[in-house]
Amino acid sequence: MRFKKFWTVYKTLINVHFGFSAMKDLYFRRRQRLWELALVALALIISIPSIAFVFVNFAIGILEFGSMVGEPEIVLSVSIVAAAVTTFTFSLGLVISAFYFSEDIKTLIPLPLNPLEVLTAKFATIFTTEYLVLGVLILPLWIYYGIKLGEPALYYVKALIGFVFLPVLPLVAAALLSVVLMRVVNISKRKDLFTLLGGLLLVFVMIGGQLYLQMQAIQNPELFMEQLLAQTTNFVKLFGKAFPPSVWLTRALADSGASSFTNLLLFIGTAAAGFLILLLIAEKVFYKSVILGMEASRASRKKAAGNVEVASRSKVFSLALCDLKLFIRNPSYTLNGLISYVLLPFLLVFQQLTLNVSLDELAGYFGGFHPSLIIVVCALYFAVMGMMSSMPSTPFSREGKYLWNLRSLPVSASQAMLAKLVSSQIVNILGSLVGVVAFAVMFKLPLLPVFAGCIWGIVLSTGTSSLWVFLDLLRPMLNWTNPIKAVKSNLNVIFSMVGMLGLILLVGSRAAHHLKTGTLTMMLVEFSVITLMVLALGYGLWKAFGENAYKSIV
Amino acid sequence: MLSIKNVYKKYQGADRFAVEDLSLEVKRGEIFGFLGPNGAGKTTTLKMIVGLLLPDRGEILVDGTDVVKDPLGAKKKIGFVPDNPDLYQRLTGIEYLNLIGDVFEVDSRTRKERINHYLAMFGLTDSARDLIQSYSHGMQQKLALTAALLHMPELFVLDEPMVGLDPKSSHLFKEIMREHVDRGNTVLFSTHILETAERVCDRVGIIHHGKLIACGTMDELRAQAGREGDTLEKVFLELTEEGEDGEV
Predict the structure, then answer these.
(1) What pTM was computed for the model?
(2) Chain A residues whose beta carbon lies within 8 Å of the beta carbon of residue B51
(3) Residue B97 included in any domain
(4) Count of structural domains within chain B
(5) CA dist B105 to A316, B97, B98, B143, B203, Å?
């Protein structure tokens, strides 16, 4: 492997991954949308210390518990295992995305680079992302531990070395799994279906595990605590079972003397060996997998007899249908966009059930709600779910380089936005109805307020979604190499969340006021005004700025 | 049919104009070739005609309709195929064509006739129900051509249309262009293949550094370059003064 070549590829991938050149061009060369830069900086300044604060508080709790059972280093074990699980979970997605869906592979393969250089640069990019996450999650805990126990300077050196090698093994495991998956999926020529099924499986395995643990704890809390306490005699070993090298790193950091260095070397050696094995295996199978993936999968359809059939539809509906098909047929979008419609009701119902409250009790509780409150909650549910699907906040971004198709057609900005709104609302209305009907049946909610809430929800979510569609028209994220970035790395999704949070706070505070004063019917009047204002704002923005924004997209 | 008057376009952050004081008239019923070295401003001009870019100054009229003031009116008269037609990969060929047909409001009967005609001509009938992501570059190019011809545009605009086409399709395509203008429509295309331009075009315009440096029939261009009897390639090299590195 030639380091210079690796470095060149790595620098380029990092640049593309984080969008440095695009940001430089937008913010410093063209000096546009500078407010975003300030907003992101502000968000980072607020969020990073907040997250670190939460984790340090978490560490304080574990450290106190550990000190009680004579094992303060539990905090290190917990953090290492948590880091391993986090890295493994995220890496699986990152590796598959980087090797399988990323379009830069098509550019890199024809270049005079050997597989190892491409592979290492790709992994290095993923490592960089992992370090940024782990830096916020893990380092504050380790620093807190060091200060609290008055560890010497050597502890911090060992911690730094340990931190560098920490994500290696979980990433190696995730990468090996993904290489195997890539082979299977590519050969099957049904990669979209496999990706969707794999994603769903992962989500349900995670939820299933969570459910199992909660059920155990809830069904027999005494036994659960008993077992937990019986195991406290050697917590480090317990965590070691989940991720064996965590014991070595824990001992390396917590102990002093020769055994500490032996454990550190063991950890580093295992990580390095794992990485080498990964590179060797990946070099043998990587190109084959990727090239197989790049082969066009020609459908084995029988030759069509005669002419093709055509079907005429209205302009807007045809565009909406096209948008819907493109969304549904992309497994990354489907997983991200549709899962919340199923997951959120499922989790809410589950949380209620694990509280050991009978359904009848709950039905009595919810059924006793004032009809106005049911209407408002129902309506807000539609609006929130629409935002959660990220469909209305990314419709133009998802077009990416394909946007020329739409823009060269005789379609006005209003028609284009309406088509995007219709497609996202088709999904949102159907998805939200599933949740609302499930809640209504399960908790025996009165029919009329639920029905009114659904109608209101359709109207309100049309208003809120029109705002998110407009937002995406105003600042579409069109330059992506991996379609998932159009959704996952899109600030418009965050902005829509912030907007929705504002709406919930506004409606929530008014509802609380009316609950206190016993004027809940009056709340409907206010809610009507709010709904009308949202609709008017959406309509006004479309009319006032839509055409110009649409024309100005470059 | 197409009138470009004193059009300027500079990209944000760029030092010079991509298109500078460009004026051009393309008549109804002619095939007009738009030539120029790389980065001369051909694609920028074509994108401004079809509404993908806005001119900074000047006016572009398609059959009297201003592309900035009435973009929808202008777009209805245009069929466009870009140099690298990125079509929606997760639609089937027929779904894409139906989308275009719906947007241009082509009635079902006409649409069916034209789709079947062009698909058969380009050998795409059997692949029409496959996802576009399974198409080769040439097949996507042919699908884009079919889509652009679906509403029989008065102005057919193409950016490097021959790239990716096999010799048979290329020949077919030249025939289609001629048939299209014989029906009273207009074709404007950019190309690097000077031989094609020489053989197919009624008139040619040469753009260099964003400015139109020559425009006319082959004979008029030869006269402008003082190279009577020479090929278009020699005329082109003479006019763009880049003969030494052969960059076309």
Answers:
(1) 0.70
(2) 407-408, 551
(3) no
(4) 1
(5) 11, 12, 10, 18, 32
